[in-house]
Amino acid sequence: MLRKIFVLLLLTFLATEAWATHIRAGELTAVRISQSSLRYRFTLVIYRDTESSIQVGSNGIMNFGQGRIIRDKPALEAASVEGRFIITPIGHQTEKVTISWEHTFDGPGVFVVSYTEENRNGGIINLGGATSDSIPFHIETVIRIDPGLDVNGTPQLTIPPIDRGCVGARFIHNPGAYDPDGDSLAYKMVVPLQDRGTEVIPYLPLDDPSISKIREDGGTPTNFSIDPITGDMIWDAPEFAGEYNIAFIIEEWRYSELTGRYELLGYVTRDMQILIEDCDNERPLLEVPADTCIEAGQLLEAVIRGTDPDNNDILVESFGGPFRVNSSPAQFFNLPDMSQDRDFRPQPAEYLFKWQTNLSHVRRRPYEVQFKITDDPFDPDAPNLTDFKRWNVTVVAPAPKGLTANIVTGQSIELNWDNYVGGNLNPRIEIYRRVESYDFQPEHCNVGIPANSGYELIDDVAVSETSYLDDNDLRPGVNYCYRIVAEFPLPEGGTSYASAEVCVTIPLDVPTITNVSVEATDNTNGEMYVRWTSPLEIDQTLFPGPYTYELIRYTGQNGGSNRTLLTSTQDTVFTDTGLNTKDRPYHYQVRFYDAGNNLIDSSSTASSVWLDAFGNVKSIDLSWTADVPWSNQVQSSPYHLIYRNRTDAAAEDVDNFVLIDSALVTSQGLKYHDDGSFNGIELKEDREYCYFVTTRGSYGNPIIPAPLINDSQKICVQPNDEEAPEKPIIDKDPDNGKEIIGPDGPLLIVDNENCDRLSTEPCGFANFTNTLNWTVQDTQNDIARYNIYYSPTGAEADYELVGTSTQTTFRHTGLNSIKGCYKISALDRSNNESELSDPICFDNCPYYELPNTFTPNGDGINDTFRAFDQPNGKCPRFVSSVEFRVFDRWGGTEIFNYTTRGTGEPNLFIDWDGRDKNGVELPSGTYYYTATVTFDVLDPSKRKQEFKNWVKIIR
């Protein structure tokens, strides 16, 4: 009996020892190691308590999330890259243990890769205290493999997850994360895990009142948070000494050109341990430079300084992406001896950050350099206090060099430049153009082209190109200025400094419009002042004068709507009257004839200035546009003038317009915010204020006088107007329509022109346009625009905004189906939106027709039983599915069937070759068939049609 008891006790001891607890913290990261396959290297880092005799991996489980699982230490080591666990002592009864494995995924997808091991170390206060040694340790990494998002690896963590702090003192930790691919990182607190998808149940966050309810400044409650952008984890402040564990994830996001938004690529989980002790100590201090940019190829040097208020020795360490790059990594030296040993040094201490940058370091996001300072208290048993400071360094690509511009023809300019120094990194060369020179210095992080500079991107070319022909709507008399920029590919991205500017002026050999200015605002008696120059640089030997000019007007700021010949004259000024300048802009063009009445050429079109106004709380926002050949954002005349009525103290003077301010359009754009600041009288909310804007522009050509002065129409708006407009009514023919029951009630389907045109379109045609017209009672006279909502099904939940219009018409273009319903709302200048109009719907026009004979004799003519198509003028239209069955001539036995349901590439034409279901040719004769065709339509009465008939096989 004694022997049995002894054996039982021994087995109990061995079992307890075998499952002894030891894990403090850890993480699992990944790097893609192949450009041609989906092969990744996963690195596990575990921090263990050395007071335990159990080694990492003894009962570990590595799960790659795709069926491959490795269990226990022998198998984990055998499958690893190193063949063993690598152990590094780091002090404070802690060892760092690392091991790596490689794994190839068999295809795209989202994979949860995890490592699980029993158990955590004991005594973790917020994980159950004494029972924490029964909780498994589990960490996860999520990898998204998506061909549309290119090669990807996880964020890498450079600062260890074991840290120490003092009772009552703010604790701060940063993982020193960086992403080798240059992706955006985001941080989020999570609950520690004990298995896949299983949170630790007794976990308490560090701001739980039972854990801590104090702050360093003596206030309450405790602050426990992580900055989602920087990753600074703050616990302000610990209340009790002991060990604590927390977890957070580092997400990586990448912009997708396919979706036009940032996509989540995955995340890494950090499970860390914080050791809090009683101490009497003050935090050391760091001094780091301001965030900076440096041009690739230059040497970056900066001095870092550390101090300690207790005069303790200090240790300053540096982490981050610049130290991890493959080419020319950064260095961190002790001063003045230029050593790189990391040790405690007397305070104050200085250090030198040194980085010889090169083009491979270029990326859009800044590199984060983390500096960590740690003090060494005089009491050897006291814990160290730490602090972190971040320094952001952006490596910018150099500007392209050698840009020149030369006129090729009157409508084209050739650009040339030198080979770009970063060509091996495959950037695109972006080409920007504007009218008139715009001077700015592309330096000090001012990369690319400044916003509101007036430069527009006109094209981009491969980096191997060193020339470009600009023939995109160039206009005589205009001074065109160019700059080029190198734009680096994602995921790292990056924009170079802009090149030097180069300008060239096309000779003025046609008339040039200089003014389209609103002289009077009215809905019937509006007036427009139009002025143009003669063709100042024309060859009068070839084209003798005097010249005759035809002035043509169009409605709107561009396009060809309502073309009207206004006058034929030898003058260069015209006042256009009888217009609705209150509700619409206009644009003009001049054609000119020589002395022999020969048409020579036409000017570019130029529009009036269109002013929009939107009412806010005690303020009004203005914005304006003009489609003109000159520039309205020129440094020679950078201000546009803002005029307003009701500038008297009582805001009752509606007739007099006063210059209240100017807008610096070269930096702020064509907009202005009026809150009454100009005279200190805030806007009243019970009345309308009216405005017009005077623009000032230039061709940048010294022979055309500048500035070009043009006024907008007058527009009136009420601040804080809360009354919505009346809802619009969509036009429809009362005798043309069919009411059906839709998903959420009655719907009115009306005919449109699309169905009539299908008789002349090929079978695969799918490019439709639905046109809407509507009316509205603008009782407040303040409707600014209309919203157009579309639902492909007619269901209320499916309506989405598909466009806006300032006119009472809208064309919904590029549709692959006619089917859909529309609702319209009106918005006033205070952004109040009316109720939605009653819906109006268009429906597809289904068609399907089958023949009654075919000749499967192999001559290539009528060899299959096939639905009619061109050139018959009859095509299957808007067919969703076809179910086809063939019977013997008595209709009793099924001898063949075909369905498009569940097929990847359905053949809606059927193309039956005259064989039975076993592939045996059927003899000539007559057979019975049924075809059930389902159409993509709103009208349920047309959704499914059944065709029954006879078909004759002739061989």
From TrEMBL:
Gene3D superfamilies: 2.60.40.4070, Immunoglobulins (2.60.40.10). This is Fibronectin type-III domain-containing protein. Keywords: Signal. Pfam families: CHU_C. Residues 1-20 form the signal peptide. It comes from the Bacteria. Residues 397-493, 510-598 form the Fibronectin type-III domain.
